[in-house]
Amino acid sequence: MKSKPQMLLFAAALTALSACSSSPYGPTNKVYKKQTKSLANTIRETPVNPAGQSFVGTVNFGLRKPNYVIIHHTAQNSTEQTLKTFTMPKTQVSAHYVIGRDGVVYQMLNDYLRAWHGGAARWGNLTDINSSSIGIELDNNGFEPFAQPQINSLLTVLDTLKRKHNIPAANFIGHSDIAPGRKVDPNITFPWKLLAEKGFGLWPDAGLSDSIPANFNDVEALRIIGYDIKNPVNAVKSFQLHFIQKEITGILNEEEKKVLFNLYKKYL
Ligand SMILES: [Zn+2]
User: Fold this and answer.
1) Whole-structure pTM value
2) Homologous superfamily of the 68-197 domain (CATH)
3) Distance 160 CA to ligand 1 centre (A)
4) How many alpha carbons fall within 13 Å on the CB side of residue 33?
C-alpha cells in the first residue's frame, strides 16, 4: 500500500508528464535559457585588456547585428524531425528559423546569437558566416517544389529581418552559394527570382543582348559576386543552381555567360 507522500509524488510526476506532452520542448527550452544566461554573464564580465593595462568602459555601444541571411532546405521529411535535430546536442547544428510546408514559422534562436548552420563556408572574404548571418531552414525533402504558404511566411520573415537589421538586398543568399561542391540547398525549384523582386537577393535583367567583352573572365566574375572559386567547376554549379535554374553542368554556355556578365556588374 502506498503511503501519502508517495501518492503525492506520483501525482506530481503525472502533472509533469502531462506538461511534457503538451510542450515536448519544455526541457530543451530550459537548456536554451540556461545557455543564454551563461552567455549574458560572459558579456557582463569586465574585459581583460590584452596589454594587461586599464579598462575604461565606453558608454556608447550596441549589439552586433547580423548582415546576411542564408536560406537552406532541411532535406528532412518533416518539420518535427528538424526541430528534434536542432534540439539534440550531439547534432551540433541549428538555425534561427525553421519554416514548415504549412507556413508555420518556428523561431529557435535570438537573431543576435550565433546559430550553427553554415559549416565550412566562404562568401567573398567572409569565412565565419555563422557569426554574421541568420540561418533559415525550409522544411523540404531536397527535391520537391517549395509550398506556397511556406514561401509566403518566408517573405514575411525576410521583410522583418531586412528592416530590423538593415540587411542589403545582395546579402540574401543560399547555403549552396557559400559552400560550392558541398551543399546544394535550397534546391533548384527555389523562387530566387520572386525573392529578388521583393528586395531579397539580386537577379539578372531580362532579355540580355549585350555582347560580352573579349577580356571578360568568368571565374573572376564569380569571385567578385562572392563565390569561393577554389574549385571553379563547383562555383559554376552553385551559380547555375541559384541564377540559371536549368541544368547544373559546371560549364557556362554563351547564354549563361551573358547572365553572369550582367549579374556581376550589380556586385561591383
Ligand atoms: Zn543548408
Assistant:
1) 0.91
2) Peptidoglycan recognition protein-like (3.40.80.10)
3) 21
4) 6
